[in-house]
């Protein structure tokens, strides 16, 4: 595999899409096409103590900040390197205590402001192809609800960060939050657990397709873009901005709402996978179209109800999943994506409740259809294999557990690279079990 692909890609004007990136040479699946350090990043509060605040590495025995006792670091170098950002929050966390509650978006915006004030007009290593100031904002497309949310974020920014930041004018803050909302990246680990948020200007140049040829993963605070298909010189590089599990109508709605464009990729134009994704259960009397439409509306509402209640993480949440699955199962096949969505949520609740057998049962029902619906090299698939592997090993089903882990690693070595700590860690664990 090629160690660094920066020289292998270039910025260009993509017909009908605006700015984009294209390959200057051939990339094979697994090749690194682009590596970009974060311009600014923030570790999510829930992962403090398990990950370094500075480099986001997952480690044991981290040292805590002597003042706030909230931030943890690998070593003195990481702590010193992060101080210009951590000082924005350190004294405020001490002063506000449990009332310190800026959103992750607000925390990230504060760091972007601080970074801009520190670097002034200097181009950073994260901006080799595009400056952070050049990120799209789509201000003309913002609805009233999003504008109100940004006003609330700006109020929180002033409330929690006024002692350490000189704020730009209000219009500039609106523009910044719009940029963050459109271009911020969610940093996740190999099991798709949320670790934090960041801005990677060069990576933000990559346009969307529901048939992506690259995937974005993370090595600490560095975004790595790897090919998941063979890419020829001159071919545009595409990633996916959204979860690809869902049918075309759902994907298009999500892209319009969050990114303000209509996707016209091959998958959206042909809707080739929609029939399999929306498979109807075989019944002696096939359900009428109106019944199917009603169940589709019910499925979407059930997903939204679960999202609103998700913070509870208890038996009631599992009951919501089970009731939804029972009702949708009257019409939808077990491979239908709305069934799969609720099964995945039920698996998560079982894991939280330490119902290992229940989680294993749901996971094994999910993983086969996932392989059908998702691209060949998908973290959604490998993350389920990882969970199944860990569950089987914990339940002393070692042979099956190792099989699941091997399937996960076959995907991970392409999307993360063989030298990534996540892949090496899982490889070591599997070898120890053999």
Automatic annotation (TrEMBL):
InterPro entries cross-referenced by the UniProt entry: H3K4_H4K5_MeTrfase, SET_dom, SET_dom_sf, TPR-like_helical_dom_sf, Znf_MYND
Pfam families (alphabetical): SET, zf-MYND
Keyword Nucleotide-binding among record annotations: no
Domain SET: residue ranges: 7-242
EC number per UniProt: 2.1.1.354
Gene name in the database record: SMYD2
SMART domains in UniProt: SET
Record GO biological process: methylation
Keywords: Metal-binding, Methyltransferase, S-adenosyl-L-methionine, Transferase, Zinc, Zinc-finger
Domain MYND-type residues, every copy: 52-90
The protein, known as: [histone H3]-lysine(4) N-trimethyltransferase
GO molecular function: histone H3K4 trimethyltransferase activity; zinc ion binding
Top-level taxonomic group: Eukaryota
GO cellular component terms attached to this protein's record: nucleus
Enzyme class: transferase
Reactions this protein catalyses: L-lysyl(4)-[histone H3] + 3 S-adenosyl-L-methionine = N(6),N(6),N(6)-trimethyl-L-lysyl(4)-[histone H3] + 3 S-adenosyl-L-homocysteine + 3 H(+)
């Amino acid at each position: 595999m090629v160690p660094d692909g920066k020289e292998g890609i270039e910025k260009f004007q993509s017909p009908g899409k605006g700015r984009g990136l294209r390959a200057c040479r051939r990339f094979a699946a697994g090749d690194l096409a682009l590596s970009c350090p974060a311009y600014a990043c923030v570790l999510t509060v829930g992962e403090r103590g398990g990950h370094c605040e500075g480099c986001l590495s997952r480690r044991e025995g981290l040292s805590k900040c002597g003042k706030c006792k909230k931030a943890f670091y690998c070593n003195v170098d990481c702590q010193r390197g992060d101080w210009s950002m951590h000082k924005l929050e350190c004294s405020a966390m001490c002063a506000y205590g449990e009332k310190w509650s800026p959103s992750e978006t607000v925390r990230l915006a504060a760091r972007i402001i601080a970074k801009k004030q520190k670097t002034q007009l200097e181009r950073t290593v994260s901006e080799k192809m595009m400056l952070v100031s050049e990120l799209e904002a789509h201000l003309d497309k913002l609805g009233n609800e999003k504008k109100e949310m940004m006003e609330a974020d700006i109020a929180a920014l002033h409330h929690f960060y006024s002692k350490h930041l000189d704020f730009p004018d209000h219009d500039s803050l609106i523009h910044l939050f719009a940029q963050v909302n459109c271009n911020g990246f969610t940093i996740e680990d190999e099991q798709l657990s949320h670790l934090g948020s960041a801005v990677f200007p060069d990576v933000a140049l990559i346009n969307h397709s529901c048939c992506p040829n690259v995937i974005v993963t993370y090595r600490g605070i560095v975004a790595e873009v790897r090919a998941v298909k063979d890419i020829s010189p001159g071919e545009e590089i595409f990633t996916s901005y959204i979860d690809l599990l869902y049918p075309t109508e759902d994907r298009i709605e999500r892209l319009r709402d969050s990114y303000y464009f209509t996707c016209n990729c091959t998958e959206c134009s042909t809707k080739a996978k929609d029939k399999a994704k929306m498979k109807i259960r075989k019944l002696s009397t096939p359900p009428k179209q109106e019944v199917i439409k009603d169940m589709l509306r019910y499925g979407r509402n059930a997903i939204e109800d679960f999202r609103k209640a998700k913070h509870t993480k208890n038996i009631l949440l599992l009951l919501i999943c089970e009731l939804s699955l029972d009702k949708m199962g009257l019409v939808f096949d077990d491979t239908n994506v709305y069934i799969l969505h609720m099964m995945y949520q039920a698996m998560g609740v079982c894991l939280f409740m330490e119902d290992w057998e229940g989680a294993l049962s749901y996971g094994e029902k999910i993983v086969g259809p996932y392989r059908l619906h998702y691209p060949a090299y998908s973290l959604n698939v490998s993350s389920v294999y990882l969970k199944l592997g860990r569950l089987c090993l914990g339940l002393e089903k070692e042979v099956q557990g190792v099989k699941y882990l091997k399937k996960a690693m076959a995907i991970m070595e392409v999307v993360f690279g063989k030298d990534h700590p996540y892949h090496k860690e899982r490889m070591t664990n599997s070898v120890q079990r053999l």
